[in-house]
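Co-fold these.
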Amino acid sequence: MSLKDIPVKLDPGPGPGSPETTGLAVALLREIADHLLAVSQGGERQVVELTNLPLSEGDLQLLEAKLGRGEVEARINAAGPTEVFETAFPGVWWVRYLGEGDRMITQQLEIGTVPVILEAHEEDIQASARRFPSMFDELDTNHH
Amino acid sequence: MKEHDLTLGEELRRQGISRRSFLKFCAGVASSMAIPAAMVPAMADSLAQARRQPAIMMAYQECTGCLESLTRSFAPTLENLIFNFISLDFQHALQAAAGDQAVEAIKTSMKENWGKYLLLVDGSIPLNDDGIYSVSHGQSHLDSLRELGEGAAAIVSIGTCASFGGIGAASPNPTGAVGVDQIITDKPILNVPGCPPMPEVMTGVLTSFLAFGALPEVDSLKRPRAFFGDTIHDRCYRRTFYDQGKFADSFDDEGARNGWCLYKLGCKGPITHNACATLKFNEGVSWPIQSGHGCLGCSEPNFWDKEGFYKPLSAGQWGSAEGIAAAAAAGVALGAVSAVMSRRNQNKISGGK
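Predicted complex below.
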């Protein structure tokens, strides 16, 4: 008998999980409704962290189905990929922070005008404004 | 301008690392520490204003397993950022310098950063015979710890040996090995036990120290609550089998093949506080229970001497199938309670959000 004869079954670990919903998804939808109302009245941006909640696969599917897809989809390349999409409800965004091999680091629902990770940030804009004029030096050198 | 004079934000910009990368790093850390996600931009701002943190990492009576773990973290691109946040002035296995030059690096860093440096320790410290059983460069590790501890802003004990004595202190403990906090008593000390500890915990601890200027909230064993607040059992994906009374009775039976609960095979999950069940090891590939082996309880004091790895926790008190069935029934009720407790604990950490 060789090693190959021993049947090996891999435990996928906390895999797809149960297709049943736990009631948490509905509770979350109510929370999002509250946040959205507050933001629509000029309130501060709100973030709901999904990774730490004991959501079942069924819960996540229900959330995705109810929230739907909107007009915006974006992929950001900064310290690995990040996926952002707007849900069918403008102002409610789904943000997935991914690591190597698209492994999930954390995912959040962000309620506001635009997810913070998508904005160009003040410090980066300042740095690019400083960098931009060097383009003209190159252009000048090429022309003369 | 010297490296230490730049803020982290300035330094990262100089290296072409965008604010988005910085925010993403903070989002990852905040998520693992149960810090409210809405606080991430504020955390990033605060971190951007911080200066590079000088750190000295000492290896005492240890096996280098902790360092192996720390250099294999879960999201390499993100984790690399942490190296921009600290100035690791001494780590004997990672640095090029050796001998007198290396010792000189410790002295220089101590002098320049007296009262400000973070001291990271792995390995236990022998006390017997003036600590002669563990010596580097002619100095006992006991003397080394006392000297370095005096000028440290805070100390982080990495791994179970530095935290509680660990393997070195296992019976009959011939060297009289102890953890750091049994020698230094007048400094803030944080224990990050585990054999090995989880790299994400180190990242979280270092980041929160830089962003908030203090070590995170700890439990009675000085472990950060955010990572050690729940037991392995609370968060185990096989917990449902425990609640249903479905157990593996040996490592090759039907129960083991079906991935049932390993309680009867000696799993120490119910009394072990750590975050393996959610964070996992080796870039999230797996963790002991997912590999089909019970938890050894490696993040708890004296884990090596506790009864034996394959003896069920209940063996001492019940020792019968009926007893285990009773424990399983109690487990259902306890499971519900501990779920509520975990939630409450997280609410406390996140200020009710």
